[in-house]
Amino acid sequence: MRAMSVLILAAFVLAATLAAGQKVETVDGVKLVHNSGPGAWGKTAKVTLEPVRTLGDVETTDENLAFYMPSVIAVDGAGDLYVLDTGNHRVQKFGPDGKFKASCGRQGQGPGEFYYPSWLAVDDKGFLYVSDPNNQRIQVLTPDGKDHKTLKVLEQGAGPVFLGKGGELVEGSPRMRFIMNQDEEKPAALPKLVKVRDREGKLLREFGEPRDFGDDLVNNGGNEVIMTVDGAGQVYLVFPVQNRIEKYAADGRLLWRADRELPYSMEIKEKGKVDRQGGGVSIRMPEMNRCASGVAVDGKGRVWVVGLTRQLKKEEQVGTAVSMTMDSSGGRTIGYQVQGDGQELRTTDAYKLEVYNADGALLGTLPLDFFVDGIFIYGDRLFLMDKFRGTQFKEYRIKG
User: How many domains does the chain have?
Assistant: First the structure.
């Protein structure tokens, strides 16, 4: 009896220690990490970011640096930089020193043409993989920007594409997917969040469970996912409107799910609305609080998440208005326009970097003083993207 009492006491002490900054539990075989407090670093971060350069500017007179709604920056083995300039339907290539080298792509539906492309990846041979969702395909370009081949992706449209283990393509969910035809049959279940394909586009497996909010439009917005893939093919998902961060093995096994303390709720404020008139569709998106806008993984396995210290004020908010029409033959015309009161702003205290270890435990945070819509890490180089306001990438070197 005494031995049992000692065992129970030891278990109680362990639980109390974890609760001081982190509680770990297993539910239905899934490891859940609940983070609280400032993290293991305490008040002093163990890493610093050394500024290197800024690439792009909304006020530049240099056409090669005049991005419009840029989405991604990628780095190849030689250190060259590739910017997916979504609003201008092109890819811009720069040297390691930031000097412009080449451009490829234009608006269209033919080979080497894009229609608001959404993602870009570069393989170890310099081939470019461009996710072109509005053309329902992934285009593969040669290192000099010429058309190589096209992978047709018809199930949902193409989402962000990453290079996984053994030459596999790891594809995330497209940003939005609407049923244009009301007579179109709805799927029996919500689609998985991640698809893995071979280099020819054949589906190999899929994983990642969406949450069913009980409403089509809310399911679209509520299951928005930002993802990244590390060198071992492990997949990381961050949910901007759910307090949820997940890490998967390359074979699709969920390794852990983490959350953290937030100074605001993640409730659904308004469900949104879809209006159809003739061949046109007007969409008002659900109104939800947001808790993240980017994720990346460094060479030490640390997970970097762009988080928010608070919700953006109305005068800070910027987004895109999407117009879409469909003709009788099924052809679509799509347009994007940046809107919002905060287009002229450059600084804010609403963003921070959250850094987690490889097991989902919060290490600490770093404050930011500008708007951040994405994060990318290649080696010790870290890039923070301002997509809508400054239309630029700030490059840093990770120290520590």
Answer: 1
